[in-house]
Amino acid sequence: MKHEKTLSDTLANNRRSSYSGVSMCEDDDCLDAMTDNEPQIIETLSSAVTTILGGLGENPEREGLLKTPERVAKSLRFLTKGYRENPEELLKKAVFKESYDEMVLVKDIELFSMCEHHMLPFFGKAHVAYIPDGKIVGLSKIARVVEVYARRLQVQERLTQQIRDAIQDVLNPKGVGVIIEAKHMCMVMRGVEKQNSVTTTSAMSGEFISSPSTRSEFLRLIHNRS
Length: 226
Ligand SMILES: Nc1nc2c(ncn2[C@@H]2O[C@H](COP(=O)(O)OP(=O)(O)OP(=O)(O)O)[C@@H](O)[C@H]2O)c(=O)[nH]1
Prior knowledge:
alpha+beta; 5-stranded mixed sheet
């Protein structure tokens, strides 16, 4: 009983202090955190991890765990670095006038994200296509947009739509198609424990919706069918 009280006190204290020095995101495109004080953020996160270790019945003071809170804090900062990046600005860095008007597809872009429900990884591949309308974008920027949105707490559906919307808004192409195939560790290593399940999501705009032949070509190119 005494232990429970101590633990909940610690949790309450952590909740109060957890916002100090950390700008919280009000929306998905929040960039406030860019101005945050990194050492303060690492300290706040480390203290929370120490609490978790205690809550698991571990001794955070034992040798093997001494640096774990800071390691986990830094790891979490990396895995959520997408909150501190602006995908639209990133795309705008490499937009070029060009008359090419066939489909451009970047497929098999590997992604690692974390589900917002369990904070466990989901990972897989994104396939992103667009049909230019007078402007093309640097190919690496497409993979970077995937990376920015993936490095946030996500659901796969929203991730898919955000990638589509960023490309649509910046390039204003004739259409965008995004397909993500991913494996969710929250379904593999816990919960329903389905090791082989893969989730596919898609988000389309413009000709990818209005033209069945464009959509078919997209799917054919992704799956290398002739
Ligand atoms: N739609 C969607 N669901 C997700 C995603 N990532 C995780 N989930 C699901 O989020 C749901 C959360 O359900 P809850 O019933 O609140 O949580 P839970 O008791 O841990 O559920 P189980 O995973 O079924 O044990 C689960 O069904 C997860 O599979 C995602 O990207 N998209």
